[in-house]
Amino acid sequence: MLVRGDVKCYHCGHISGQVEGTRGKRLVLHAFHPRQGYQGEVPGPGDRLRCERCQGPVFLEDLRPVPPQPLPIELPARKGRTSRGKAA
Asked: Which pLDDT band, with edges at 50, 70 and 90, does 25 fall under?
C-alpha cells in the first residue's frame, strides 16, 4: 500500500516536506517531496532526512494511504461525422 506522511523535526517542529513509500513490515521510502519554498538540498536515495531549518532529527507524522490514481479513459473517435456549414 502506498502511503504519504509529513517529515517533522523533533527539535523545532518544522515540517520540511512529505515522503511517499510502500508500507509493509518496514516502510520503504520512494520519494521526498519538499514543501513549497524549501531552501535545503533535496535528499537523494539512501540520504538521511534532516530538518531543513535546524538540521535536527525528523520523524514521520500523519502517515496516511495515498488514494490510487484514476486510470485515463480513452474515448473512441467518432466516425462518419462530417463538418457542417462548410461548402466543398
From this structure: confident
